[in-house]
Specification:
Layout (H helix, E strand, L loop, with lengths): L16 E4 L2 H12 L9 H8 L4 E6 L2 E10 L4 E9 L8 H15 L6 E6 L4 H5 L4 E12 L11 E4 L5 H12 L4 H7 L6 E7 L2 E10 L3 E9 L2 H14 L4 E7 L3 H9 L3 E11 L10 E3 L7
Parallel strand pairs: 4-5, 10-11
Antiparallel strand pairs: 1-2, 2-3, 3-4, 5-12, 6-11, 6-12, 7-8, 8-9, 9-10, 10-13
Helix pairs in contact: 2-6
GO molecular function: acyltransferase activity, transferring groups other than amino-acyl groups
InterPro entries: Acyl/Acetyltrans_Enzymes, Acyl_CoA_acyltransferase, GNAT_dom, YitH/HolE_GNAT
Length: about 300
């Protein structure tokens, strides 16, 4: 049984402690984050853990686990910070502020000199990350709708299961659009159990990727990337048909007006706002071809 601490004000002489999470603790921590709005796939805990088991930290306070943070080095010069997440009843007591320097220093030590670190957060935490050197690089609109089986019709491209495409081609397409390599995550998302992952092909080359994976509420959608709005629509139509009658969550970059229009045309409505922030050089993300992005991390 994982011990968690009841809420009380942090005493001046007490300091939180950071340590690696066990696998079971990591699952518990992800469950905490879903209770405050994180939308994760049913298999996401296995995906994120397998990508970097040493990258997940627990925050202990008075001998109990009260929060967590991820420090994930995707490449030698790019990492992502997942959190810190602190249990709601213990927020405002300086636990996140006290531990964030450690997490940033540790992650920076894994990266090269001219590295960048990205995090996804809420508008209410924007100032917190600005104070430690982050700046806003994108705003995402979390949109939700309901899948429905749409009439089949010819589209601008051929759709094939993503798992049947040579992985090096899939990774190259994702990297070209995301602006960074996330090989380990993408490898585990190309054949989601109970979901659907498609490649759009034009002239034998990848011109789009669309993935949905089951979640507690229905389906998470993303990545949804396409060279043109027409290809994005064909992919989204197929994903909606697979999710017939189920809730679909789609994180849409605010800067891509075509993506917002496409989601609205399929009945998706705006909910929460996601703020993507970066410390250091921002990745060269091709936001105008991204119609639905997935987080680099949970939290």
């Amino acid at each position: 049984m994982i011990k968690t601490r009841p809420a009380h004000r942090r005493d001046a002489d007490e300091a939180p402690r950071c340590r690696h999470l066990t696998r079971d603790e990591f699952v518990t921590a992800l469950n905490w984050s879903t209770q405050v709005g994180s939308h994760l796939g049913l298999d996401d805990s296995a995906v994120f853990w397998a990508a970097d088991p040493e990258g997940w930290w627990g925050i202990e306070f008075d001998g109990a686990l009260v929060g967590f943070c991820g420090t994930i080095a995707h490449t030698s010069d790019f990492g992502s910070l997942a959190g810190p997440y602190v249990l709601p009843d213990l927020r405002g007591r300086g636990i996140g502020s006290a531990t964030t320097p450690f997490f940033l220093q540790h992650l920076s030590s894994l990266l090269g000199e001219d590295h960048s670190i990205t995090t996804d957060t809420s508008p209410g935490h924007r100032r917190f990350f600005e104070d430690v050197g982050f700046r806003v690089t994108q705003v995402g609109m979390r949109m939700s709708g309901k899948g429905e089986r749409l009439p089949w019709g010819p589209g601008p491209c051929e759709l094939r299961p993503l798992a049947l495409i040579p992985f090096d081609e899939v990774e190259a397409y994702d990297t070209a659009h995301a602006g960074i390599s996330r090989r380990d995550l993408i490898r585990r998302w190309i054949a989601p159990a109970g979901g659907l992952a498609l490649a759009a092909l034009v002239g034998g080359r990848i011109a789009g990727i669309g993935v949905i994976r089951p979640s507690r509420e229905g389906y998470c959608t993303g990545p949804l990337v396409a060279d043109t709005p027409e290809i994005a629509e064909q992919l989204l139509d197929s994903l909606c048909s697979h999710a017939d009658g189920q809730v679909m969550a789609l994180d849409v970059p605010e800067s891509n007006s075509d993506a917002l229009t496409l989601a609205a045309s399929h009945g998706f409505r705006t909910g929460a706002v996601i703020v993507r922030m970066t410390r250091g050089p921002a990745p060269n993300t091709q936001w105008q071809q991204i119609y639905g992005f997935n987080a680099l991390h949970p939290g």
